[in-house]
């Protein structure tokens, strides 16, 4: 089993390689996050989920980031332009893997001419993991603390923040999706809806934070009581106003 310091070193290196979630990513409007710890007798796993909207991608998605001593179900060689590209990818990403999931269905709720906007005067519904949710009235957003940029026109990121508030489990990963890149013998130790995340743009790294120092100790020892943070969680989208600002 890796030591806590070794786990933190891996997480720091993923930050330096831009494969660790930046919650104030200027290209992504954040809506929901979750962190899970896994462990077996021989290995550790840390999974982070980020649900948001990137106008560049044109559609909301959920990205599941997985970090472990040894990863399972890696990307196949078919996703690369030849075997050498695949080998290089595995060499550069020995402890991290990510995958994007699209759990919202496309529909007429999104403006066909501008992906950042909800269809004007839309009165339809949105389908999420097979379940239909009616598009809410403007007043519903204020009740959830979502301040509309333009009360006359809804934005896509405002709608997904509404969905994250009323259907959190549906916008985030299922148990099997969370552990898709982990060995089958790893057991789930801890699930957090909020934690103190590093400000990567401010050059913070996981190894510098009490929260991740304690999470690494949980992974090393299997003792969940080692996680007793004193700093407040900061993963709600309100704490990262720079997200989606570019």
Plain-language structure description:
With 246 residues, this protein is of the alpha+beta class. Helix content is 24%, strand content 20%. The chain is built from 7 helices and 7 strands. A 5-stranded antiparallel beta sheet has the order 4-3-2-1-7. Helix 1 crosses helix 7. The longest helix has 13 residues, at 4-16. It is globular and about 55 Å long. It starts with a helix and ends in a 25-residue tail after the last helix.
Provide the descriptors you would attach to this structure in a database record.
single chain; 246 residues; 5-stranded antiparallel beta sheet; two-stranded antiparallel sheet; 7 helices; globular
- Gyration radius (Cα, Å) is 19 Å
* Low confidence ranges: none
**How many runs of DSSP E, i.e. beta strands?**
7
Number of helices: 7
- Please state roughly what percent of the residues sit in beta strands, choosing from under 5%, 5-15%, 15-25%, 25-35%, 35-45% or over 45%: 15-25%
Widest beta sheet: strand line-up: 4-3-2-1-7
- Helical content band: 10-25%
In one word, what is the shape?
globular
Write the layout of secondary structure elements.
Blueprint: H1 4-16, E1 29-39, E2 44-53, E3 61-68, H2 83-92, E4 96-101, E5 125-128, E6 131-134, H3 138-143, H4 156-166, H5 168-171, H6 175-178, E7 187-192, H7 210-221
Antiparallel strand pairs: 1-2, 1-7, 2-3, 3-4, 5-6
Helix pairs in contact: 1-7
Structure at a glance:
The chain has 246 residues and is an alpha+beta fold. It has helices at 4-16, 83-92, 138-143, 156-166, 168-171, 175-178, 210-221; strands at 29-39, 44-53, 61-68, 96-101, 125-128, 131-134, 187-192.
């Amino acid at each position: 089993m890796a030591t806590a310091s070794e786990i933190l070193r891996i997480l720091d290196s993923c930050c330096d390689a831009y494969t660790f979630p930046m919650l104030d990513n200027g290209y992504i409007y954040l809506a929901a996050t979750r962190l899970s710890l896994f462990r077996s007798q021989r290995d550790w796993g840390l999974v982070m989920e980020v649900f948001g909207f990137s106008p560049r991608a044109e559609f909301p998605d959920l990205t599941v980031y997985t970090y472990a001593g040894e990863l399972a179900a890696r990307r196949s060689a078919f996703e690369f332009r030849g075997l050498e590209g695949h080998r290089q990818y595995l060499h550069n990403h020995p402890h991290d893997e990510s995958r994007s999931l699209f759990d919202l269905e496309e529909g007429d709720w999104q403006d066909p001419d501008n992906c950042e906007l909800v269809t004007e005067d839309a009165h339809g519904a949105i389908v999420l993991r097979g379940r239909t949710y009616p598009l809410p009235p403007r007043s519903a957003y204020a009740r959830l603390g979502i301040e509309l940029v333009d009360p006359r026109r809804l934005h896509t990121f405002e709608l997904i923040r509404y969905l994250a508030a009323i259907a959190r489990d549906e916008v985030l990963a299922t148990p099997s999706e969370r552990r898709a890149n982990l060995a089958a013998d790893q057991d789930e130790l801890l699930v957090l809806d909020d934690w103190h995340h590093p400000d990567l743009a401010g050059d913070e790294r996981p190894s510098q934070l009490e929260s991740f120092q304690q999470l690494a100790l949980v992974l090393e020892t299997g003792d969940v009581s080692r996680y007793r943070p004193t700093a407040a969680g900061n993963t709600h989208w309100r704490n990262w106003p720079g997200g989606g600002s570019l």
